[in-house]
Amino acid sequence: MNKIDVALICKALSDSNRLEIVQMLSDGEKCGCKLLERFEITQPTLSYHMKTLVESGLVNDRKEGKWHYYSLNTEHFVQFKKFIEALGCENSAGETDGCCRC
Amino acid sequence: MNKIDVALICKALSDSNRLEIVQMLSDGEKCGCKLLERFEITQPTLSYHMKTLVESGLVNDRKEGKWHYYSLNTEHFVQFKKFIEALGCENSAGETDGCCRC
DNA sequence: TAAATATATAGATGATTATCAATGTGAGGG
DNA sequence: CCCTCACATTGATAATCATCTATATATTTA
User: Fold this and answer.
1) How big, in percent rounded to 5, are the helix, strand and coil portions of chain A?
2) Which positions on chain C have an atom < 7 Å from some protein CB?
């Protein structure tokens, strides 16, 4: 995962509605209409946010009948977390113990 | 640290220039002119990005003579990492072992 | 087949973003 | 006291964002 991918995910998480959607999905997959109930936004706006999340790679979209089930893309999410975890940690070759100061 | 703070930090990290600045600062504090050397942007644009980072709480700004020294706000950064680490982890009360599946 | 439901798309709008050139400010040096 | 250097601010601009209303599409149900 490179800088561009991470920046895209950060952009996806830079809206508090979308952050809350991700929190809700951590509990397991949910369909769009269930998500919509929890927000004070219109259906097209939710659709727009879900598109943003899916395109960032953070969320999966599974269609079943007339429903869309959204879930976290765990693989991608873990990679993102690793990048953020490493960010802000000195990784210079000069370190003798192989550990950063964070 | 609440959702609004996290969304603000994510917004600050949603630009690959700023992501790279944070990477550079992980190596220790740097002055603006040193940072500027590494990018293909003008000085006002760097100034704008640094303001964004400082206002997100992620970066400290220390003035010394005519220089500005920027460094990571470790405390804030650690809190952000904790939030992201917890995000996407089920924390429901039903869990018996107190651990999430991530 | 017609109605209802879940979602997407199109088009509009006001707000915000990233960027620049030009200029202002404050500190040091000759 | 002027000049230079590091940085901020202003004003402009083109692009993107978040949101809405209106409408289209696809699927299930009566």
Assistant:
1) 50, 15, 35
2) 5-11, 17-22, 26-28
